[in-house]
Each structure stands twice: as structure tokens, then as C-alpha cells.
Amino acid sequence: MLLTLPNILSPDDLARARALLADAPWQDGRESAGPQARTVKNNQQLPHDSAAATAIRQMVLGGLNRSALFFSAALPMRIFTPRINRYGGETNTYGNHVDNAIRLKATDGGATEYVRTDVSCTVFLNDPDDYEGGELTVSDTYGTRGVKLPAGHAVLYPGTSLHQVTPVTRGHRMACFLWVQSMVRSDEQRRLLYELDMNLLALRQRHGETAETTALTGTYHNLLRMWAET
After folding, report:
1. Which residues form the domain of 136?
2. Helix (H) or strand (E) holding 97
3. Which is more confident, 3 or 35?
4. Which residues contact 213 (CB under 8 A, 6 or more apart)?
5. Number of domains in the chain
């Protein structure tokens, strides 16, 4: 399932992010890539512990935490610490690749934990008018789709997907990216739960609470209980 999440970052968040990124200490993005991805990755990233990266990821995590749509679609159990990247100039593309299945994340207490990359997420930090090219293309069972969203919007797609960022030929494309380990590992099962949840919401808005919506809510939670890991 490929899904757009609108307005994860507010206009105030984006203004603050732009100010932070104006003098950001960019470095070679290949530092975080696996062996295969390193051969096709040509972008820049912020150092993980830089002030700009720390502030922007807090804004992104706060926005995702407020998004009911994100929770319904991703059913997050763990989130890999968000990172910030930039494409443009001589470091302007990321060829076709599949993300590593497992990432190692440092926790707040200084320990580490593994995160399975069930769901990939990109939050766009500047508008499409700021650059040319730089389209995220995702290939999966639904075919190949291109994504280029307004600043503050995000896209979710399966971590199993083959994807790339096409060359940026003018300006710079900046984004925050992260991975989610879902309580429900299967993309198909997550999609079914998401569709059931969204249709239940629509039925409640149209008819209020009914015996049928109550029964279907029970079905949703019984399926979640059957499929979820905690």
C-alpha cells in the first residue's frame, strides 16, 4: 500500500526546518547505506547528532504521533530514528534499491535495538517548485508510481518495495526519511485493517454509532488481535 499523509509538518515547523537547514553541516549520504545501496546512492545527509537533525526529527515524530492516519496505516511498534537528506548539484540521485530488512537503532538510554523495516516513510521538507526532478518512484505489485509532494506532506510505502529518487536537475530536494516496524508484519494484512478502519470511520460519520458499526469494530479488533505482535 502506498499512502499520502497530508500536513505532518505545520507551516511553523517548516519555517523552523528551513532556518535550521540553511547552515546545516551536510555529509556524504553513503555513510548510512548497505553494500548494494552504496553503489547507487549519491546524496547528502545531516550528521545524526547535529542540532538541525535532532530538531527536525523531533518535529517529524511529533507530527506522526498526532496523525491518526499514520497510526491506522502503519500500526507502529518501533520507529527507526528519522534522518535528513538532500539531493542536488553533484550529489543528486539514489538509484533503484531495496532498503535493508533490519536496522540497528540507538535508544534514549544508550542501548541499541533492532528495527524491522516493514514500512518506509518520506516527509518532504521543501516544495516541488524548489527543484526539478527528484521524484520518488516506488515499484511494487501495483506497478510503478512516482511521488513528489508539497512540503510537510509524507508518503508511506512498503519497505519491501524497489524504489529510487530520480536525479535532481535544478535546486535541492530535502526530506526526512524513516522506517517503521509495524505490529502487523504483512503489508496485505495492514492494508485490509486500514481499509476496514477507514470505512468504519465513514459509516460513523454518515450514520452515527449503529449495531453494525459496533459489530464491525469488534471484527477489526479481533483481526488485529490475531495478527499483531507487541
Report:
1. 3-182
2. strand 93-97
3. 3
4. 200, 203, 204, 207
5. 2
> Are 168 and 199 part of one and the same domain?
no
Question: Does one domain contain both 113 and 165?
Answer: yes
Could you please report the per-residue DSSP string of 156-210? EEETTSEEEEPPEEEE-EEEEEEEEEESS--HHHHHHHHHHHHHHHHHHHHH-S-
60 plus 111 within the same structural domain: yes
Q: Is the dihedral of CA 161, 74, 195, 66 positive or negative?
A: negative
- The alpha carbon of 188 is separated from its chain's Cα centroid by a whole number of angstroms, namely 18
pTM for the full predicted model: 0.95
Q: Residue 109 burial (CB < 10 Å; 0-12/13-18/19+)? A: exposed
pLDDT for the residue numbered 13: 98
Count of Cβ atoms closer than 10 Å to residue 100 Cβ: 17
pLDDT band at residue 111 using 50, 70 and 90 as cut-offs: confident
Residue 82: helix, strand or coil by DSSP?
coil
On whether both 85 and 177 belong to a single domain, the answer is yes
Q: Is 25 in the same domain as 46?
A: yes
